[in-house]
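INFO  loader      accepted 1 record
INFO  loader      residues=503
INFO  predictor   begin
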Amino acid sequence: MTNLLFASTDPAELEFLRRCMPGNHFRWNLYIPENPGEASPLVTSGTIHVAVTDMAYNKGALLEELSLWNYPTVILAEKTDLEKLSNTPLGITTDILFRGGESREYLQALPFLVRKVLNAQESLERHNSALRNTERRFYDLVQALPDIVYSLDNQGRITFINNSITVTGWKPEELLGKHFSVLLDPAEVQRVSRDHVLPALAGTTTGAEAAPKLFDERRTGDRRTQNLEIRLPHRNGVTKEPLYGTVTAYGEINAAGFLSPEELPHHPGTVGIIRDVTHRVETDQLLRQGLEEKEALLSEIHHRVKNNLQVISSLLNLQAGAISSPQALCRFTDVQNQIQSMSLIHEYLYQSDHFDQIDISIYARRLADHLLSTYCTGETHPRILLELDSLTISLTQAVPAALLLNEVISNCLRWSCSDRNQGTITVRVELKKHQRIALTLTTRDITIPRGKTIAARDDLGRDLVNGLIEQLGGELPREKGAPEVFEMVFPRRHETAHPGSED
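INFO  predictor   done
INFO  writer      dumping tokens
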């Protein structure tokens, strides 16, 4: 049966209940306090299931206590109590029965109102039980996650953190109420804390790309912080490798229930997830270290190859002093320039950040300067006009392209400088459609001997040029009806392509 507390300031209402109790509708265990002091223990002890009282009993103190304990309550009210009722917080487990009539017949409706508030209480308890079960399931799920899950209040204090934080030597209960900075390396705090980052950006429009990433983020949706990498040292500086984590943090109105509903819109907190990426960070560090070592090794190799080629060129230069035949000396010079053209490639790679490609425009300028100083030692010499697109070619194509440029420019310079001619040599390199490179060389006011061309000074030179063109996968030169023009096109290949194969 239902235990009902009846505390009314109207004795006639109690008499009416006692007369009607034997009836069908009033089946309760009735508790009637003799004074207000007896009512409170009945409420706090949980003895009663429902209370019936009025606004005047104990000056409303009992009603306030019932409201505090969320007891199912029926209020017996006068029509003059409307103003008081409007200022009284009434929950779904509270109903009102307005008094009226000397016979107290209005109390006939009391059983229905009692059942109504008890049903409301039962429904509320089922709802609360479901919420508690759901909360428990989510709590167990969060605790089972290997990621660190945390929530902060609007001051950056930790209001929740799951058990995964134990990998850093902390226990969750030790961190509650502490500022999140205790978890981070001191050098990290200024980089990820709102208090340090935002003042420096005041008045600055960053845009989405440059927006700061914050541990105590308050923005939501797409503007939240994602993939912020931080370093979590072990507690108290214990000798142990630190944990590296990526933080996905976003502003949340309800920071683990820490703030009251009235404050929430104005005092948002933060919830976030830290994923352990220590293995990835350490692997990246090893890869970066290995890459730096290989880059240093490749740089040293190119430097040594360049030096060795320079030594060979110097040895040839010494031998050239003992050669009296002009033709033999010319051949020696050709070989020296071919060696120098390759040496310039290794010098370029040694000075570059990329060891698998060269910028042909930069290389061609260096080669032209070298050849001009080799063949034209006097004050009168031709002008070399370079019209070069800035484009890179793979190391596989760099050597044959360098030798080809060396051969055709050397031919022009040899004829021009021997006659002390002030003509113009134009070298044009441009990128055409379908990733094809066009190399064009023309001369103006330079006399080319009869039977000679820019591409070939003799049969040996012609064979060399044709072999280099074939190695590049290019088309044989077309001489446009005059020996003063050399033109060829070859495909731009990736480093992995094999010589002679098309893209």
